[in-house]
C-alpha cells in the first residue's frame, strides 16, 4: 500500500503511543464515513484516537471508540461523540485485514486521521501485534540511545 506524503496532508488526530504498544507490520489507508458536523469538528483538530480500534461489524470494518467532539455551532443537529464509524475499503482489502485479525491474532490500530490533498478525511490503519513488556523496554532503550548519540554528535564529543 502506498504511504501518504507528509507534505500533502493535514493531520487531524494522531495515535502516538500506537507504535510503542504495537509492532506494526503493515499500514493501510482507509476512507471514513462521517456526518457533516463530524467533518467540521475534525477540521478543528480536537479529535482523539488514543483508545480507538478498528474491527468487523457484519461484513464491514468500523472504527470504534474514536472521540470526535461535538461541533459547537451545530446546536441540536450534532453527532454522537463516540459512535462507530464505517471505514471505506475495497472488499479484497477488508477480507485480507479481517483474515489477519481472526487467524493470526493481529490488531487493527488507527495510527492517524488526516485530510488528504483533496480535502477528504482518511484514516491510516496499522496491522500489528501487541508488544510484550520486554519489547517495550527495548524500544525505550533504543530511543534513549539514539537521543544520546545525537547529543554527543552535536556537541562534537
From TrEMBL:
Cell location: Cytoplasm
Keywords, alphabetical: Cytoplasm, RNA-binding
GO biological process, one term: trans-translation-dependent protein tagging
Region (Disordered): 130-157
Domain of life: Bacteria
Comp. bias intervals (Basic and acidic residues): 135-151
GO molecular function per UniProt: RNA binding
SUPFAM superfamilies for this protein: Small protein B (SmpB)
GO cellular component: cytosol
Function: Required for rescue of stalled ribosomes mediated by trans-translation. Binds to transfer-messenger RNA (tmRNA), required for stable association of tmRNA with ribosomes. tmRNA and SmpB together mimic tRNA shape, replacing the anticodon stem-loop with SmpB. tmRNA is encoded by the ssrA gene; the 2 termini fold to resemble tRNA(Ala) and it encodes a 'tag peptide', a short internal open reading frame. During trans-translation Ala-aminoacylated tmRNA acts like a tRNA, entering the A-site of stalled ribosomes, displacing the stalled mRNA.
Similarity field: Belongs to the SmpB family.
Protein's UniProt name: SsrA-binding protein
Amino acid at each position: 500500500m502506498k504511504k501518504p506524503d507528509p507534505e500533502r496532508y493535514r493531520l487531524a488526530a494522531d495515535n502516538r503511543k500506537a507504535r510503542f504498544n504495537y509492532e506494526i507490520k503493515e499500514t493501510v489507508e482507509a476512507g471514513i464515513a462521517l456526518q457533516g458536523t463530524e467533518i467540521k469538528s475534525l477540521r478543528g483538530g480536537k479529535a482523539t484516537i488514543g483508545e480507538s480500534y478498528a474491527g468487523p461489524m457484519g461484513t464491514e470494518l468500523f472504527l470504534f471508540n474514536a472521540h470526535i467532539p461535538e461541533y459547537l455551532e451545530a446546536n441540536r443537529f450534532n453527532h454522537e461523540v463516540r459512535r462507530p464509524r464505517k471505514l471505506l475499503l475495497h472488499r479484497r482489502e477488508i477480507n485480507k485485514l479481517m483474515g489477519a485479525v481472526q487467524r493470526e491474532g493481529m490488531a487493527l490500530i488507527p495510527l492517524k486521521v488526516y485530510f488528504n490533498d483533496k480535502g477528504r478525511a482518511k484514516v491510516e490503519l496499522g496491522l500489528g501485534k501487541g508488544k510484550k513488556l520486554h519489547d517495550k523496554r527495548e524500544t525505550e532503550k533504543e530511543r534513549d540511545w539514539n537521543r544520546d548519540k545525537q547529543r554527543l554528535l552535536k556537541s562534537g564529543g
